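Worked Example 4.2. Consider the chain below.
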Amino acid sequence: MKKLTIGLALTAISTFSMAAQECSIEFSKSAPNIRYTFNDNGTIKDKVTGLTWMRCPLGQTWNAAQNSCTGKPTGMFWQAALSEVQSINDSESHSLHQFAGKEKWRMPNIKELVSLAEYSCRTPALNAKAFNGAYTSRTIDGDVTAYVWSNNHFPESSNIMVFDTRNAETYAYEMTSAKLSVLLVAEEQNVE
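Applying the procedure from the previous section yields the following structure tokens:
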């Protein structure tokens, strides 16, 4: 009985450790905390690019008390993601309309997504403080919400560039092949 208990305990420990972000101390940070302005409203501002990002993908909610995203990302086909962004921007009844005071949110291009990469870490390969609780999926049981749609469309094809948050790689996905996650970005608004 002791062997079974110890075996179950080791299994539980190894399963728990698999869920944690893994970082190398041998590499300098490519997206350190000082790069971002952390806002309690569920956004971060990237001081390098000037872009403001939602800290959670669509479907998750920012919990300011826990400083973490809660819930699960909503997987969407690419066209549905574009429609959702339009609804966020146009429909005053949408829960994310003018989120954090931003009038216009959009899907990022692939270069903007890659700019978030924390190359010294994986699972996720993102700044853990900036995106705490987001993208913890290891693509188990067909859940591919660790992949993020970009707005980059290949001409004369139905392939879209996606960003894999687990290891900061990019891929081309057919726009109706999988329900991937959506992370939104906003640009600095000119105040007149």
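Residues 22-186 form a domain with the Mannose-Binding Protein A; Chain A fold (CATH 3.10.100). The two ends are 73 Å apart (CA to CA). Compare this with Example 4.1 before moving on.
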